[in-house]
Write a structure and sequence with these properties.
- It contains eight helices and 28 strands.
- With about 400 residues, it is α/β, with parallel strands linked by helices.
- Bound molecules: adenosine monophosphate and magnesium ion (MG).
């Protein structure tokens, strides 16, 4: 049995980006940029007004209440074909190119139109006021963004500005999901005697989607060596294969055996974690394979603690570890496990501080307790009883951020 920390590190050592793919800009959000980006143009490409107002020579308007002749009006998108001479102004819209001869803009609020053809400038402006200089944001051919950057909405905007209709990102891993168990039936079916609905496929699928990787959910596989052999062979064509169930000590737990038959090199098959001890991790030359325990809370917890960081590393993230932080316990909590313990908890913010409350749970099959949680509180074997008001370690699941 190995420590949780070691299981995570061993797994991360095997997880590496699988190359680069090119996607449409709108599909690049949330991934990691796999190329340095240079601009094909100056931004702005021309001198432009940053206000709706009047463009003129600042030197003409050093006194209050100067009146100028209005010689034209320039909407955004139109390049003016006239010049502004001394004593003249052009009406100009935000984003429109500055006309020849003008060097400054006064905002419309600080002007007063007089009839059709004159304007009174109510306040003088300094030279260059309200004018965006050509290339003041980006110079053509300069580097705008570096490989390794997370493509946030802001980055997507910058990529669009410099013409990146298609973008290279680190490849999104394809993740196959196999659920095993003779007792399992599909969601739409009513379980007969001895059967249960398979839920792991759906929770794991949803976790893979959330991670940004590309899931494929295969059908339910019975606890039968022949079927398992065929399914695992198919699954190993993916970058990552998640297999739920069949990794414990039961008479029908064949998953590890079939992995070995397929030449999967096994790195560990027991982790000192609760829930999720019987977790198997291995790899072929092409694929990483996780044998996850069948109990729903165990399978999802191993995904959060071990699989998600590996997927993030494969997608090129430089911060791929789960973030542990501290929260104040809102209720007393006690456990008697000797293993590193990840207990479903509800963490929330109050007065700018994090508080957490353990969810009462009937264990690793308690899908309802788990569904009512958004985080884990973590205990190690050192201390077993915690009082309300004490500080405790927590890991927030992504749903914490999505629902706060
Ligand atoms: P196993 O790891 O195959 O021994 O399964 C452990 C427990 O998890 C058993 O009670 C199974 O019935 C249950 N289980 C296994 N697979 C699933 C699944 N896909 N969905 C829900 N429960 C499952
Ligand atoms: Mg089973």
């Amino acid at each position: 049995m190995i420590a949780v920390k070691d299981a995570i590190e061993i797994t991360l050592d095997e997880a590496a980006p699988r190359g680069v793919e090119e996607v449409e800009l709108k599909n690049a959000s949330g991934y990691i940029l796999a190329e340095d980006i240079f601009s094909d143009i100056d931004v702005p490409p021309f001198e432009k007004s940053s206000m709706d107002g009047y463009a003129f020579k600042a030197a003409d308007c050093q006194n209050k209440l100067t009146t100028l002749d209005v010689v034209g009006s320039i909407p955004a998108g139109v390049y003016p074909d006239f010049e502004v001479e001394h004593g003249q102004a052009a009406k100009i819209m935000t984003g429109a190119p500055l006309p020849q001869g003008a060097d400054s803009v006064q905002m419309v609020e600080k002007t007063q139109a007089i009839g059709e053809n004159k304007v009174k400038i109510l306040e003088p402006v300094s030279l260059g006021k309200n004018v965006a200089r050509k290339s003041e944001v980006i110079k053509a051919d300069s580097k705008v963004l570096s490989k390794g950057v997370f493509i946030s909405p802001a980055v997507a905007g910058a990529l669009a500005t410099v013409g990146m209709a298609r973008v290279s990102i680190f490849k999104r891993p394809e993740v196959g999901i196999l659920v095993t168990g003779d007792e399992l039936v599909e969601v739409a079916q009513k379980p007969k005697a001895g059967q249960i609905r398979s839920s792991n496929g759906y929770s794991l699928y949803s976790q893979v989607v959330d991670s940004g990787a590309l899931p494929e959910l295969f059908g339910i596989v019975p606890d039968n060596i022949e079927y398992l052999t065929k399914s695992i062979e198919l699954g190993l064509q993916k970058d990552v294969l998640l297999i739920s169930g069949g990794v414990s000590m039961g008479d029908y737990d064949f998953v590890e055996e079939v992995m070995l038959e397929h030449g999967v090199k096994i790195f560990y098959d027991k982790v000192n974690i609760k829930p999720g001890k019987p977790t198997v991790f291995g790899r072929t030359s092409e694929a990483l394979v996780f044998g996850l325990p069948g109990n729903p809370v165990s399978a999802s917890t191993i995904f959060e603690i071990i699989v998600r960081p590996a997927l993030r590393k494969m997608m090129g993230f430089s911060n791929y570890h789960s973030v542990k932080m501290e929260a104040t316990l809102e209720k007393d909590y006690a456990t008697n496990t000797k293993r590193e313990n990840y207990h479903p908890a509800w963490t929330f913010m109050k007065d700018n501080s994090f508080y957490t409350s353990p969810i009462q749970s009937r264990g690793s099959a308690d899908v309802v307790a788990f569904a009512n949680s958004n985080s884990y509180l973590i205990t190690t074997k050192g201390k077993q009883e915690f009082n309300s008001g004490e500080t405790i370690e927590v890991i927030l699941r992504p749903e914490f951020w999505k629902t706060m």
